[in-house]
């Protein structure tokens, strides 16, 4: 008998009917002979409704109380799901993050899991119950206050519990059939990937694929937990994310996993930076103090006649104005000339573990973009990824050109909407 | 500096605006120099909405999960209330029943408080916070599962916390100005009572006054906690329920506290019971097994010619059909002739601690009912109470007649609706 952790997001439990559908799915797994621990997000719009309520009483709610409020969302969904399972003739017990032993640091709103001590979950499973755990939440080790894990938190809860329970697999149920070679909304011929390494999934997630959050994949890699991303609306296999070799599989993995894209970044250019040692360090120290996450960085070759250079970097649009203001405040101190802010960029990334040993990949990549008349503004690479920044209105053409150039198009593309998994 | 526990029911926190109003009230108390611990119920219709949701997925939800679901209600209200207080410039921290140390037995849906260990509340108060505690909920000592206290549970939470914290007073905020000499909807001239002993309040509560639940008053009496019942819509003093003598008060308490009435009971008559020893015991053992709460009992004098008697008793209407069915199943075994079920009765009770030493009370009482042509069907008494059962359509006339006969009518009655305090 194996132990399966199943995670259902808010869109899978949006109303009573979908809760009942998810309950049937869980009971099927139980009846197939597996122990089942379920992680569930808040139902549909519950979180937004609670946030609205908070705004009505306070312009800036204290973070501790906001976490207390939001965690009511999973409390509702998990109890209702346990009831729906009970009405199918199986016993289920629901547990808050705190009861499930999800111990975090004390950073409200984006707490990190420090430890998982799932004694009560283990007992519930041993007694034959299906265990339902509230995703997205935990309890601070130091303050004993209730915390939330931030975006993608329920996926992280699921993987962390799978690791602590030594589960055989962590199934993440979502509204698409798995991870695709590209966003099917842009590339109708995109194919579902059967397997993906955690390195590849990390690069996909970090470069715009919204299907799994980075933290969750990092956790799975560290504890060697296979993640099965699959649809809650069908019984088809999804995508298995694992570094374990497939059984009986001797052939090499495909060179390319897929093409990711990201419309969520903006570019800031610091113009006319005096070309002295330490200038870049000063600039990025100011940026770091805003806690913005910088992605790509390009520094132009210094113009000999002026002794000045331009430094460009990309970052999430949501951090953009904040960083511009911070830099503007130190303009005289650093001595740069001006700031440019550009939020009409797109990022395109080609990802594949096989790149390491296939030197022709970048040539094919740039030829494909060139033939599609895509202008490249910035480039960055890792061992298993090449990324470029383009104009945002050229991004879709670029994704299709690259996807096609690497032979990723399927004969009959599945027309499936590629979406996020909620929190 | 004194410590005040304030309890606000669901009708006092029905929406964002009323939460803000309650927050101002709490902050006023804090600014007056008191430590404040607040107990709050779920907002407005939240509990009903959650029950509806449960019904949509399960005809008979497991009690453990129903408690888990319903306790989301106070989690929302307490966090939102803490936010509203914070936006007024005071710090507040909210605590679940479990965090507040409300330890109960394991009976889901109607758990009893076993102990209160308010270490975290005490710390929060010592650090200068206003503490907000979820009413109606606790955690089982044995199973560690979340429990709810059942009807009136939030009042009980408030009094139990007041006792554990050694508070100076427990203020129960409601939608009326206090405890009245009678229901002002029936007796417009009813007066607010300034003080009431716990014995009197217990009799009032047990005999139909819905303003406080029995359990909460019992708790207050046992731990000697004064309860101040007052309106959340005005700053007037309400009714103080206490056995401590008022300062400087040497005069005797009034003979009569008030007139309570109850439309919630039904009468069952077991007709033609063989008049042997042990018959009544058999009947009431059957009734006890249904867990119904019996109130008044009358046994007629046995008719010599038949050797049979009739036994009548009253009980909550909600238990009626259930008990009739249970008795019907043992008709042949006990040998009675038939069962009568009458749910058109009303109960009228006159309550006053001064009755003990004023023998004329019952004469005045029965004369008043007689002059109003009220037919009396059953009578029961305690040291400080006389109750009668009448036809339900005569009840209001009876209440007015008795109220008037004991000089309780005020010159200018306050027209205030007399209602429950929610849960």
Automatic annotation (TrEMBL), chains A, B:
<dbReference type="GO" id="GO:0009090">
    <property type="term" value="P:homoserine biosynthetic process"/>
</dbReference>
<feature type="binding site">
    <location>
        <position position="185"/>
    </location>
    <ligand>
        <name>ATP</name>
    </ligand>
</feature>
<dbReference type="GO" id="GO:0019877">
    <property type="term" value="P:diaminopimelate biosynthetic process"/>
</dbReference>
<comment type="function">
    <text>Catalyzes the phosphorylation of the beta-carboxyl group of aspartic acid with ATP to yield 4-phospho-L-aspartate, which is involved in the branched biosynthetic pathway leading to the biosynthesis of amino acids lysine, threonine, isoleucine and methionine.</text>
</comment>
<dbReference type="GO" id="GO:0005829">
    <property type="term" value="C:cytosol"/>
</dbReference>
<keyword id="KW-0028">Amino-acid biosynthesis</keyword>
<dbReference type="GO" id="GO:0009088">
    <property type="term" value="P:threonine biosynthetic process"/>
</dbReference>
<comment type="similarity">
    <text>Belongs to the aspartokinase family.</text>
</comment>
<keyword id="KW-0808">Transferase</keyword>
<dbReference type="InterPro" id="IPR001341">
    <property type="entry name" value="Asp_kinase"/>
</dbReference>
<dbReference type="InterPro" id="IPR005260">
    <property type="entry name" value="Asp_kin_monofn"/>
</dbReference>
<comment type="pathway">
    <text>Amino-acid biosynthesis; L-threonine biosynthesis; L-threonine from L-aspartate: step 1/5.</text>
</comment>
<feature type="binding site">
    <location>
        <position position="74"/>
    </location>
    <ligand>
        <name>substrate</name>
    </ligand>
</feature>
<dbReference type="InterPro" id="IPR018042">
    <property type="entry name" value="Aspartate_kinase_CS"/>
</dbReference>
<feature type="binding site">
    <location>
        <begin position="7"/>
        <end position="10"/>
    </location>
    <ligand>
        <name>ATP</name>
    </ligand>
</feature>
<keyword id="KW-0418">Kinase</keyword>
<dbReference type="InterPro" id="IPR054352">
    <property type="entry name" value="ACT_Aspartokinase"/>
</dbReference>
<dbReference type="InterPro" id="IPR002912">
    <property type="entry name" value="ACT_dom"/>
</dbReference>
<feature type="domain" description="ACT">
    <location>
        <begin position="268"/>
        <end position="353"/>
    </location>
</feature>
<keyword id="KW-0220">Diaminopimelate biosynthesis</keyword>
<dbReference type="Pfam" id="PF00696">
    <property type="entry name" value="AA_kinase"/>
</dbReference>
<keyword id="KW-0547">Nucleotide-binding</keyword>
<feature type="binding site">
    <location>
        <position position="47"/>
    </location>
    <ligand>
        <name>substrate</name>
    </ligand>
</feature>
<feature type="binding site">
    <location>
        <begin position="174"/>
        <end position="175"/>
    </location>
    <ligand>
        <name>ATP</name>
    </ligand>
</feature>
<keyword id="KW-0457">Lysine biosynthesis</keyword>
<dbReference type="InterPro" id="IPR036393">
    <property type="entry name" value="AceGlu_kinase-like_sf"/>
</dbReference>
<keyword id="KW-0067">ATP-binding</keyword>
<dbReference type="Pfam" id="PF22468">
    <property type="entry name" value="ACT_9"/>
</dbReference>
<dbReference type="GO" id="GO:0009089">
    <property type="term" value="P:lysine biosynthetic process via diaminopimelate"/>
</dbReference>
<dbReference type="GO" id="GO:0004072">
    <property type="term" value="F:aspartate kinase activity"/>
</dbReference>
<comment type="pathway">
    <text>Amino-acid biosynthesis; L-lysine biosynthesis via DAP pathway; (S)-tetrahydrodipicolinate from L-aspartate: step 1/4.</text>
</comment>
<protein>
    <recommendedName>
        <fullName>Aspartokinase</fullName>
        <ecNumber>2.7.2.4</ecNumber>
    </recommendedName>
</protein>
<dbReference type="InterPro" id="IPR045865">
    <property type="entry name" value="ACT-like_dom_sf"/>
</dbReference>
<dbReference type="InterPro" id="IPR001048">
    <property type="entry name" value="Asp/Glu/Uridylate_kinase"/>
</dbReference>
<dbReference type="InterPro" id="IPR041740">
    <property type="entry name" value="AKii-LysC-BS"/>
</dbReference>
<dbReference type="GO" id="GO:0005524">
    <property type="term" value="F:ATP binding"/>
</dbReference>
